[in-house]
Amino acid sequence: MEITLFHDRMKSITNEKLELLLKFMETEKLDLIMITDSEQSRDLNFQYICGHPTDGILFITAGGETTLIPWDTALAKTEADVDRILDHTQYEYSTIKTSRDYFENILKKPNASIGVSRGMLYGEIIRFETMFPELKFTKEPSKISRLFEELRATKSNHEMDLLMEATKIAEDTLQDIIHFAKNATTESEQDLSFLVQTKMAKRGAEDLAFPSLVANTNRSHTLHCHPYATESQFALPGLALIDFGAKYKGYNSDITQSFTFGDINQEQQRMRDITQKAYDAAVETMEIGIPLWKINKASMDVLTEAGFSMPYALGHGLGLSEHDAPFISKKPTDDFQKKYWKEVLLEEGHVFTIEPGTYKEDFGGLRIENDFMVRNGKIIQLTHTGIYPIE
Amino acid sequence: MEITLFHDRMKSITNEKLELLLKFMETEKLDLIMITDSEQSRDLNFQYICGHPTDGILFITAGGETTLIPWDTALAKTEADVDRILDHTQYEYSTIKTSRDYFENILKKPNASIGVSRGMLYGEIIRFETMFPELKFTKEPSKISRLFEELRATKSNHEMDLLMEATKIAEDTLQDIIHFAKNATTESEQDLSFLVQTKMAKRGAEDLAFPSLVANTNRSHTLHCHPYATESQFALPGLALIDFGAKYKGYNSDITQSFTFGDINQEQQRMRDITQKAYDAAVETMEIGIPLWKINKASMDVLTEAGFSMPYALGHGLGLSEHDAPFISKKPTDDFQKKYWKEVLLEEGHVFTIEPGTYKEDFGGLRIENDFMVRNGKIIQLTHTGIYPIE
């Protein structure tokens, strides 16, 4: 098996993982993997493989040769680490015509078997199937997606270094948030949002990991408040939270700090205690080698017993995406997901969140979300948020 | 044809357009349209139809009855304008199980013909086809997408009012940008990015339309600079630009202001003149009733003749998406796109950008991008950017 050696540009995939990818292609009898990334559907596997941040089509042959059709060729010249760039402006700006040249004159396998992920757009797969009826596109995109999930779930040392920096920027910004909350009077959710953004930029973040969710007690019961931050007063009596993270060289952190303002009522006190208990249960359950669904279950049991439900997984991986593999979630309940589900054990290289919460209309919501990393045989807690009481 | 009357909540689609949608379903013999919106693939048609901003599955029957499976039920209760909400937490958090209840006990059409758009994920359509083999999902998602494009291309008065506010916020912020550029010494791209964000928030923007692209002369030749803004000095001698917009109640503006700093060389002067000429050519060509591809051609001819190529369309609509219908682009060159292409004439309700640019490695890039609206029979220029020279 011939492997194309990579150049010295920044890229996330290691040669070791590339070998796993090529081995998978061999087992599945795939001649090609095709990854598309566009404004309408972002596929981080694209950046993971070739380093190019955004917008284009990437081909990887069974021999490991990579070809990129970027939307912005100038950007690709500085960012992409591939063997070949095809410039679609030379093909009447048509990605179909560019791809045709690739299939017919470079790949030269008229009936090639092609793997695509579940993140490809339905309209795109139909367009390619219609224009290249001789090519065989996989009918099981979930298989390809699961492979990428597996590859990306364990981070390389280089990736872990970047994630440590991304989490440190968020962790250091906690002091600014708590200072803001302690002194807040009429300041708005938006004021806190800007404060966090500017402080993280000063600490080296290239961007937010995602728009910070800042919710006062009137909005904190929604899972992802909308809009992200308003001009309403943040420090209203009750339950409030800010969910935020830093992006550092493409890698993301994600944490939530909660607050209680003033005297909270009995149900709100119960929510505070249950959230803390659900969080502690997860942390106490964590050990290397444990199935991830068991960590999820530890928290969920606490919540369920107290009458709360949480329509999201307890935690998720961190990486190029702020919602990366692995997923700390329950075993799937429907047959389709069961088919592609595999038990994942906590292992070296996992970087992830734990984020239980309680949400109740008319009472508000609370969440404790911290970031963890398994490195050198140890589970390291990278951030230290909680529920902060302010009289 | 029975039409479900809408409640008084904010929603973009009008009853008149809903009738067109139902008429289309009748012609295409569709029992149901299904729209999915998730983190991995945003489909603004979702919000357009039901007002719920994000994350869920929406069903619209041929009779106009709407059912929503939201990820966040609490958010749906305040935002969604639908006839029915199904809470997936009551179905073991499985959207498949929730959908099964909908198909079997509410829709009750075992062999229903279902329209989905090209923005659905390939993995999702495979999942639904596998789990519900008796249902017939369309093999022509582009037809459904084209219909939504047509509906969304012309804005209602309510939508135009929101877009006027979104463009006004951006337009008013130009004075801050020019003041910054005139006085800039060592200030960074990031400093300008923050300035624009805070000024637009103070003027009522709920968010940025998209992360502002701020590029000094070393980066302005790329189409979408990456990262969006860096700590590098903005006012370096040469060509620089900022591409930004405001989001106001869900609706987006999008403009670009360019700068020349110091003495620019002959080629850079030529780029400035060509960009202006290409922009003027488009504006002079615009008139109600003209095919949009002709406006694109007017600019492109100027650029091509001068040896420049532009791998994007001259302009795009503005709306719930910052890249909305209609598209001011050339006639398609590949057979697949030709199949679904229709000539669109400039008409009442169109709100769009015109944004020609010139880009050249080692010289930089320039773009003039302004927003226009056709209202009450007149083409109105809503914003007034250009290429600003700073000695």
Tags for this model:
homodimer, 391 residues, alpha+beta, Creatine Amidinohydrolase, 2 domains, 4-stranded mixed beta sheet, 20 strands
Task: Describe it.
Chains A, B: One of its GO terms (molecular function) is proline dipeptidase activity. Chains A, B: Keywords: Dipeptidase, Hydrolase, Protease. Chains A, B: Its EC number is 3.4.13.9. Chains A, B: InterPro entries: Creatin/AminoP/Spt16_N, Creatinase/aminopeptidase-like, Pept_M24, Peptidase_M24B. Chains A, B: It holds the Pfam family Peptidase_M24. Two copies of one chain form a homodimer. By secondary structure, chain A is an alpha+beta fold. Chain A has two domains: about 15-150, Creatine Amidinohydrolase, Chain A, domain 1 (3-Layer(aba) Sandwich); about 155-390, Creatine Amidinohydrolase, CATH 3.90.230.10. Helices cover about 35% and strands about 20% of the residues of chain A. Chain A contains eleven helices and 20 strands. Chain A has helices spanning about 15-25, 45-50, 75-80, 95-105, 120-130, 140-155, 155-185, 190-200, 265-285, 290-305, 335-340, and strands at about 30-35, 55-60, 65-70, 85, 115, 135, 205-210, 215, 240-245, 245-250, 250, 255-260, 315, 325-330, 350-355, 355-360, 365, 370-375, 380, 385-390. In chain A, strands 4-3-2-1-5-6 form a six-stranded mixed sheet, sandwiched between helices. A four-stranded mixed sheet of chain A has the order 8-9-12-20, sandwiched between helices. In chain A, helix 9 (about 265-285) packs antiparallel against helix 10 (about 290-305). The longest helix of chain A has 27 residues, at about 155-185. The first copy, chain A, is elongated and about 70 Å long. Chain A starts with 14 loop residues before the first helix and ends with a strand. At the A-B interface, helix 3, helix 5, helix 6, helix 8 and helix 11 of A face helix 3, helix 5, helix 6, helix 8 and helix 11 of B.
